[in-house]
Amino acid sequence: xxxxxxxxxxxxxxxxxxxxxxxxxxxxxxxxxxxxxxxxxxxxxxxxxxxxxxxxxxxxxxxxxxxxxxxxxxxxxxxxxxxxxxxxxxxxxxxxxxxxxxxxxxxxxxxxxxxxxxxxxxxxxxxxxxxxxxxxxxxxxxxxxxxxxxxxxxxxxxxxxxxxxxxxxxxxxxxxxxxxxxxxxxxxxxxxxxxxxxxxxxxxxxxxxxxxxxxxxxxxxxxxxxxxxxxxxxxxxxxxxxxxxxxxxxxxxxxxxxxxxxxxxxxxxxxxxxxxxxxxxxxxxxxxxxxxxxxxxxxxxxxxxxxxxxxxxxxxxxxxxxxxxxxxxxxxxxxxxxxxxxxxxxxxxxxxxxxxxxxxxxxxxxxxxxxxxxxxxxxxxxxxxxxxxxxxxxxxxxxxxxxxxxxxxxxxxxxxxxxxxxxxxxxxxxxxxxxxxxxxxxxxxxxxxxxxxxxxxxxxxxxxxxxxxxxxxxxxxxxxxxxxxx
Length: 486
Fold this sequence. Notes:
Layout: E1 2-3, H1 4-8, E2 15-17, E3 23-24, E4 26-28, E5 38-41, E6 64-67, E7 79-82, H2 86-97, E8 106-111, H3 116-129, E9 134-137, E10 142-144, E11 147-149, H4 158-170, E12 175-179, H5 182-186, E13 197-200, H6 208-211, H7 214-226, E14 233-237, E15 253-258, E16 265-273, E17 276-281, E18 284-288, H8 293-308, H9 313-322, E19 331-334, E20 340-344, H10 349-363, E21 369-373, H11 383-393, E22 397-400, H12 410-418, H13 423-427, E23 429-431, H14 435-445, E24 451-455, E25 462-465, E26 468-471, H15 474-485
Parallel strand pairs: 4-5, 5-6, 6-7, 8-12, 8-13, 9-12, 13-14, 14-15, 15-16, 20-24, 21-22, 21-24, 22-23
Antiparallel strand pairs: 1-3, 2-7, 9-10, 10-11, 16-17, 17-18, 19-20, 25-26
């Protein structure tokens, strides 16, 4: 429990009706969770406005309500606090409620279209390899040291974020890393957090169903760096066309990383294989267990963060060689028949291109590439034909299939993807709605030396159809197919 006056101390309060001399039992933004003594924050969401629930809370026992506009009826037992932006206020209230845990950790945020999960996870892994206790907030899973905590969002709500960071502090963690999605930045879910550093990976087309324009998408990403304090570092990929723009207004100390230009932290690919790569970091050679240029960028970012956090160079280089790939990110499985299946989360045109280029760089003309890919329903439709076109250009055979159709008809999604195929693309492709059957078909086509790319779902163990999540795991299906081949 905390006093209301203490909780309100970091806020820019515009007006208050009632007393701030109250004890608050919890902070909530979901009206269904209100209990006696609660502080309710009315946030304007994308589908629901929390202000609409204020009249229903008059006799709920709620102690105080934070809002952007006062209700018509004022209940004398409730304190009403007016702020300019409830979403921002929620972030600061959540931090204050949980004793500002981000200020007790070295918290590093990672943003960008592709590479967030891998980079954030590897920073967490590297911290642990350095002998520190660490935590992670990511798309795949949240971790407090060894304890895995399931997640269903790239960046959770502020109350969940701070509760998890508090658990990390209680567990003795020194470091934490987290993915910062564009949605989270735009919706102020990271408001009130204190970051030791931020990383920008890249910017390509994604989430335009939400942001509408690439410019708005960029602005959301940039806002994360605009909010970093002068004590933090901002590490950006200058090989990306907006790499310098994204940090131009930050107060943080600016650093760069690159695979092809002069930068503070440079990575170079010396030799690539399906099971790893020989790389150099600022001129020092290291064998890493990752493949592809996109992973080389991720690793160079991790190297840069490690040095900026003050970890010893020689130990960092050893740590780089010990890092292992994230589940569902270029995860390779070798068939008894002599071909390789790679499961990857690539679900944007750029990500698909990166993975396919990585595979071609390794196998050259010694084998064929068979790609199985779909596109999510109720999301940016504009990227569907682009994904199909880019996949067809870089594959010897293409199978279009379901991803997470959500509330759309899978056949309609596939027809949207087919629109991106030219005559040559159509000749080498077929559409199979059932994802399991699509993977089996790819395996039937594969010959020794070939590579099957199964893209789009990666670590996910479900398919979302008509609002229901059905168990489905690409990796399990691959293993089932291999078992039949043995």
